[in-house]
Structure formats: structure tokens, C-alpha cells
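[job 0412] stage=fold_complex status=start
inputs:
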Amino acid sequence: MRQYVVHEVIRRTLITNPDQLVVSGNTRLTYAQLYERVLRLANSLRELGIGAGTMVGVLDVNTHRFFELHYALSMLGATLHTINFRLSPEQMVYSMVHAADEWLFVSDTFMGAVKPLTAKFPNWVVMSDDSDYPLPDVARAHRYEDLVSAGDARELSTADKVQDTDIFSIFYTTGTTGKPKGIRYRHKKILLGALQLFHHLALHQTGARIDSRDVFMPLVPFFHIHGWGMAFFPAYIGAKLVLAGAAPPDVQAKLIRQEGVTALNMVPTQLHMLLEQPDFSNVKVLTGGSPLTSGLAKAADSRGVKFSLIYGGSDQLATAISVVPEDVAPDTPEALEWLRVGMRPLPMVEVEIRDKTGKRVPHDGQTVGTVWVRSPWLPEGYYKEPELTAEAYIDGWFRSGDLGVFYPNGGLYVADRERDAVKSGGEWIPTGMLEALLSEHPAVGIVAVIARPDERWGERPVAVVKPSGDVSADELREFLQLKVADGTIASYWIPDAFEFVDDIPLTSAGKINKVALRAQFAK
Amino acid sequence: MRQYVVHEVIRRTLITNPDQLVVSGNTRLTYAQLYERVLRLANSLRELGIGAGTMVGVLDVNTHRFFELHYALSMLGATLHTINFRLSPEQMVYSMVHAADEWLFVSDTFMGAVKPLTAKFPNWVVMSDDSDYPLPDVARAHRYEDLVSAGDARELSTADKVQDTDIFSIFYTTGTTGKPKGIRYRHKKILLGALQLFHHLALHQTGARIDSRDVFMPLVPFFHIHGWGMAFFPAYIGAKLVLAGAAPPDVQAKLIRQEGVTALNMVPTQLHMLLEQPDFSNVKVLTGGSPLTSGLAKAADSRGVKFSLIYGGSDQLATAISVVPEDVAPDTPEALEWLRVGMRPLPMVEVEIRDKTGKRVPHDGQTVGTVWVRSPWLPEGYYKEPELTAEAYIDGWFRSGDLGVFYPNGGLYVADRERDAVKSGGEWIPTGMLEALLSEHPAVGIVAVIARPDERWGERPVAVVKPSGDVSADELREFLQLKVADGTIASYWIPDAFEFVDDIPLTSAGKINKVALRAQFAK
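[job 0412] stage=fold_complex status=done
writing structure:
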């Protein structure tokens, strides 16, 4: 019987789309050529002793080699540790030691920065277009392209032994506090979760409705849930895949135009940067990871950039996606607003918003609670962290730590992380919702709401604003009063203070750095 | 953890589409109302002792009650035997005894015909809109609607105990010869197979590309692989579902117009009958089960009826679907031809065409061989038939008994059943391919090619033609000579004889009755 294992995804391209292209830098490979490289690589790796359960760390941007490694390691039954290069150097080493990486595959993009690792890790494979790229001074070191050249192109006998319940990969989350947490993904779960996301995109009226004629470019790095599943989906339907490597936004925009890219994924910060390129237009974008402001949504819309918002994460995988409800006409301002804020659980996913006693809150578009998720692809917990696992994975459910509300029509709005929300007089004030409302003001550029300790209320909100025009604290206060008057928010949500700044600090992942803001303004 | 079990499919509608409709005869239910009826029914059935593993036979056309039973029996962990009413009465009883049906759910449509069964089966539930419908004289008999009224609307504790590897249903294939064969479907496999079919329809350029705003009507009966999966898919995405019960084609056409139906499935015979209705137009049709003639394809196209062809069956589930290849422009005559004959394996499905020695044949669009299939949803074999199972299910593959060819671009054409093909001089002549070619002649109405025993060649083809205009055997012979000249077929494919008839006999399933034709013309 065939199973949902990763390397089975790509085999169909040999029949249906052998000449379709994977483009990566100056490399242009057909799926047929790429599959042969995967077989050669896998046979060479097998000679090196890489097999069932071997932990293999990969440190690379989105290239064809990282893409190939997904399929080669799957055939061997090895575990792919997609090393999170957005972690601090110290945290990155922690994750590699915690996962117990036996082999490291490192691209030349990262070789300069990771030399200190040579003392800790003895087995290296260097990935570079340069066939003379110097090897590190370790016990065993190889060049990736030499392994591809040396390997046989025959099918691997190990490939049919891999079970869909076997571990395929491991990933360590950033975590703004504490040490990184590892999450292991089984073949079946990582595939079903990723594929459901794209299936749902194809089934619904969304801004980013896709089909098999699209040309895909993941701008989410492969390390992060395999580029939100884009390491699998184009191969699964035999579509053209374009990989941008370490290209900056202007080169990305050029590549999108040159290769006819039509469907991308990225976090909002990347979307913001691409919209600064004059020739970025008329594509479909799947985005998420932080709220989309109405300013960014309108800027995208005015350039013909259609989008959908995703909700999920490395510890729950894909959960919800923004769609235009059936009773709303597509391509209207109302539809755009739904795509920006109104998500629906994916088919087979159950989402509940619960209060602190564990009771489900009403679907009234007002009552904020914690998002709980249940799905067929929910991971089992944090690797070698039974206590952290027990706190978040409860009775088949995942307690997300996010705050959300349900609208009467089933639309889900995820407002905030609990740790970022303001708890005032025992009630949650979701800062993400406040930020979204404030960003509707024409003179607000970027806005972040943080909690300031308060003797009477416990915490009170403070808005840190980077203005895009002339605006005062009184004006913003009045602006929010209108939202109180029309019933959108309660009056106690209005921030006690508005701080105006020249710039808002971002984290390495491109999100607003609230830790830094709290240090400065929440005293 | 949530699993791929049938009743999980419908629960999401409570959040996303509680007011969406299921229409069945004079009954109009929202998903919220229907879900409550399912709970009430399931709780009543539990009181009757129906639980994990109970075999429940259901004999009904496509109604809301049959639809509800899918979900209620799933919650109980019972097994749904979808009784094939196209079997002969003798074969039907054989299937019910072989499956060991403990309870029978029979709609009033069938009550007249099945009274002889009362001696064999003691436990009955009668399904009717008539609250006084007479109960059969058996040990235990109930009315379905009484059970719904009497039951509690609470969630079932058994529902979370059902595993995705449990058996959900059993079905007995017609089989033109021999006794019916039972195939059991596990929850996960029946769902993944059915959903993949619709996902693929949504992802590709096909004539029948669907989305969540479609209104669905299964004209394939629920007994046949759950209406080719349409007992699940509309609920899975929260779409409107319209059930036609026992309505004849003119009433079906009226219902399609009245309820705004946009997406249907049916066998080609049903399509033919609907196209005879003046007001049947502008819908999407998924069809299959027998080849689509170019005449029928053109008739559909001229009415704005877009279609895709499916390949699969009860013993392999969904395998392939016709799509417009990426290098062919949609809505062209070439695209139409691909939709009629050129299928692609579904993602995750592997198809091989093998010769009699088991070797894969070249993908040259010419070499005919047997279709072998491997997929994650392949059933394990025939229920309590180890020998028949061993003949067809081999090393994780299913040997389909169908003849097919692969085109160089990955297009799959399934030409014929092996048992219908003509074996001339040791070579297969696929009659389906010959029929398709002959049906392109403007004066050919319906055509069937059968094998006539031949001393020299073993078998030789004979074409039985129901003409739609003036045509002679010589003309048809010359017509096929052109196809020999352009390399489409070999010269020995040309039938030895052309027999002209006033009508072509059909089986109860609406396929051409080749057994009857052979009895008349193959002597």
C-alpha cells in the first residue's frame, strides 16, 4: 500500500510533469532531473551511513538543495532537522545539541558564521555552486555536489520501508522567552496539514485562490514548517517552483517577474518590503504570523496583490485561513475586510474559544478567549519536554496561548498572543485588535500596543505610534471613542497613553519587538 | 487527537455554515437541524443495541435519511452496508446474508419489493415521510422518524472512540459474472480517497472545477462508494446539498433549476437522459464508469455542460480524473478532447500499465496493457474471499483488470475491461477505444464492439451499431481506414463485421449489456 510519506509526493511528477521546472539561482532543473539528483544523493548518503532515524541538521535558505534534501532524507527514513537560523547563535547551538544532530548540511551562505560549530559537530556536508568551496576542518567533510555526482540513480530499497507514522522532521521554535522548544513532525501529519491548507485555498473564494497552473515561490523559509508546506505542494501537483535563496526584496521582485511567479507566501513584513518595489504587482500571497493592518491590506489591494491570511504555527500546524463568506460578494471592500481579519477553521479542524474556566465563549464577535485547536495533524508535544507538553497538549487539544473571538457567521479573528495582551481589571484587552483599529487612522504608520503595570488595574494599555502624518494623542483617543460609540470595543480598551516614535523595533523574524518596547515604555 | 472519521466531517458546519441547506424531497434542513436529527437518531439506535461493529444494511435512494445514517452510524462505530439495489434480487439477498446484516433500514420506495426478506431478517427500520406507513411483520420494527423524535440530542460518548482505521462501510459490486464481492472501507481510506477526488477537481483546469459556493447533487446513488464521495464532500466544506431521491430525469432537471444546482455526478447514460431535457444546461458534471463518446461530449458542450471524467471503482476507489494539461489552452476543442479521454492519476496515486509479463509498457499512446494501481486508500481486498483477493491485490498494488494506455504527456486513457476486449492473434484490441473512434462518425448513434470467436485469430471484433443517420458497413470500414492511415490504430483493429440494430440493450446500471450482445451476434 502507498502511504502519506514525503518522498511519495514527488514521484507522480515523473509521469505527469517530468519537464516542469524547479528554478533556484542559476540552476534550472526539470522534476525528472531533480528526481535523479535526489536518488543519487540518497544513495551516496546511504553509503555514508545515513539511514533510519539518523538526525540530519540542515542550515540553508530556500534552495534546490534544501528542497532535494526533503525527498532524499525521506527515502532514507532519516530525520530532517530544519535548523532555525533566526534563533540567536546560542539558541541555535542549543537546538542542535538538543536534537543531537549527527550530520550537518550547511550552505555557503552560512559557512562563515558557523565555523565555531566545527568543534562540536564532526560530520559535515557543504552545499555550494563552487566546486572548490573549502571544506571545514572536521572528522568527515564532503561537498554536496560530489555526493550527487558519485551516487547511483537507482531507487532506494529503504524507501518502501518508511511508515507514514515515522518522524520526518524536527523544528525548534524561536520563543521570545526561554529556551527553544523542539516539535517533531510525522510524515502523515506534516503532509496532511500542509496539503489541507492548499486544498482549502483552492476550494474557497479567497484572495489567493490557487490552481495547478500557478507558479509558486515560498518566501517563508523552508526551516519554518517546510516553508508553510511549500516544500511539498508544488511537487504534489507538478507545478513550477521558484526558489529565491538569499535574494533581497528587489531581486525577489525581479525573479517574480522573470519567472512568471503567481503564488507566494510570506510574513506581513516581507509583503511590506515587496510593496516598496515598483514592479511587484498582480500576484497571490498567503500571509500570516502577525496581524495584517488595514493600511498594508489596502496597499496590496491597490497593486492587484490578492491575499489570504493563515492562522497556525509550528506547534499546531495549519488551523485556519481567511475566506470570503458565501454571503459576501467577492472583490468588494467587505470581502477584502474578511480576507484581512475573518478566518475559518480548515476542514477537519475544530477550533474552540474558551474562557479561563474552560467554558466555550459565545460566538458574538465580542467575547475574547483562548484559542483551543484539535486536528488530525496536531503534533504530540515538545520533544523531550514532558512538562511543557502537559501544559499545552490536553485531552487531544492544543491550548494555543492565542486570544481570539468568533463572529456569528463562523469567522475567527485571532487577536493576540496571551503574553502580549493587556490584562486590565481582570479582563483581556487584545492588543492586536487595538492595533488593527488604530492602524485604520490615516496618520498612523505602525502601531504597537503594550501593557504598562498599573496599581489599580494590574495593567493598562499604552500605544506606541510611528506616525505617517500629523496626528496627536487627543485625535487618536477621539478616533477610538467612535469605536466605543458604535459598539466595536469597550471604553476601558482606550490606551492610557500614546507614545510617538520615529521607528518601531522589529525582531529578527520581522515581527514587532514588544520586549524592547516594554523595556522602554512600560515602566 | 482528531481523526479522519466520517462524523468529524460534518461537525465543522455547525461553526462555519449552520444555516446552509440540505434539500431532499419536501424536506429542507439546515446543517444545524440535520446534525440535531443525527444525534437524536444515533442515541435512539444506541438504545436499540446498535453499536461498535453492528452490521446495518440500508436500502434507499439518495435521501436526507440515507445521508443522516452515514453520520449516525459513524458516531456509533457501526458498519454501514450500502445495499446495492442494482443487483438481481437473488444477488441482493446473497450480499445481505454474506455481510450478515443485523438491522435493515428500508425506505418506502423499496418496501413493496423486499417483503420476502422479512422471513430472513428480524430487525427493521422503515423510512418514510408517512408517519403511518405500515410496519413489516417481523420481530422488531420501528419507524425512522419515531426514532429521531424519541432520541436525545446529546453528543455520543461512543463518537470519540471510533478510530480512523475502523471499518465504516461495506459494499457489494455488481460483477456481470459470478457472485457479488464485498469490499470494506475504513474511515480514513474512504474519506481520503473521496476528498482527494474533489480536491483534485478544485485544483486543476477541468470542465468541472468546483468550489465551496457550488450547490451539489449526487445522481450517483449513495450505495455506490457513497455517491462517489458526495455523501461527504458538501458537508466537509459546508456547501448546499440537493438530493433527488427517486426522481426521474425530467424532475431532476426541474430540481436542478429550482435549487440552483451547479455540480453533479452521474454515469454517461444519466447524462444522456438529462440532455434530453430541454432545460438542462450550464452545470458541471463529474462522470465516469464507462467511456464518454465524442457525440455525448459534444452534445454536453453545446449546452454549456462542463464535464470531467473519473477513473476508479469500488475495489480501488478514486484513481484518476480528466484534466486539461498545462500546455493546452482551456475551452478549446483540444481541451474538450483531453477532458473526454485524457486522465491523470490523482496526487498520491501511482498508476502503471503493465504487459502480461508484468513489465511496464512505454508511454507512447499506443501500447495497451493492464492498469495497476497503488494508493493510500486502496482497500485490502474482498471480504471473506482470500482467493479472489490474492488474485487482484498483489504486493500493495491492485491489478484492475482494465486495459489502458499512457500518452507521452502523462495522460492516461482507460480503454476497456479486459473481459470486454478482443484478443486477436495474441494482441489486445480495446473495444472502448474502437467504440470511441466509431462514435465520431456523424451517422453512428450508439456503438458496441464485441469479440466473435475466430478459428485463425482466436477472436475478431464485431461492431454492433445503432445508426443515427444513413450509413453502410463499407463507409465505416473506410472511416476506420483513415485512422489506420494516420497511425491512430493498427489495421487489424478494423472489425470483421458491422451489424446494424434498432436498439442497444443496457444493463440495470445503465452500461451497454455486452453479455446480451455477445449472445446474439458473437456466434
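[job 0412] summary: The mean pLDDT of chain A is 92.
[job 0412] exit 0
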